[in-house]
């Protein structure tokens, strides 16, 4: 259920609200902040109910944020002449910022869960999980900050591009992190956790395949002119 709702919200942002998101992103950022604020309020006040349970799962399981991050990443592997790419590219930065804001709820929830175990945080599975989560959070902060145009304009082009390349390890490690979080529940028989792992794996796997194919295609395209020049020189020499 939470994945379906997260998927519907993601599609609404990239289809129905693409133009206003590009033109007026601030209200959408504030909306994301409001959702995270509502999540914090509900958790602290002990909110109950089916609707709240679904909303809570969407935020603290990072379902919506992961899907938005997935859209951002998949834009980069689409064909340059693709109409879908032309539609999504203008809002790629905005979607990334919204996803980062929504991920704060997830980070806060699990940070609070780790706090009682700080004594053992650097040992065993807890230490590994905490270390991975902390590293992912640092990558997200770097991507979040450099997604704003004001920051981009103050950075050298090479430095900004280098910072944005952190999106690759960030996205893949986020998938690993979510899979590890869901694995205990899946192994204990939770159908929701099992389905979530399958869906996340399919999405991340599809991205890896498409990213690899695009990298190979770009390599062939870049090598072609060099080969043509070499053939031309050979013909001239003969």
Automatic annotation (TrEMBL):
Entry keyword set: Membrane, Transmembrane, Transmembrane helix
Topology versus the membrane: Multi-pass membrane protein
Keyword Membrane: yes
Location within or outside the cell: Membrane
Superkingdom of origin organism: Bacteria
Segments crossing the lipid bilayer: 58-79, 91-110, 130-151, 166-186, 192-210
InterPro entries registered for this protein in UniProt: Fe3_Rdtase_TM_dom
The Ferric oxidoreductase domain, residue ranges: 64-174
Broad class of the protein's primary localization: membrane
Keyword Membrane: yes
The name this protein goes by in its record: Ferric reductase-like transmembrane domain-containing protein
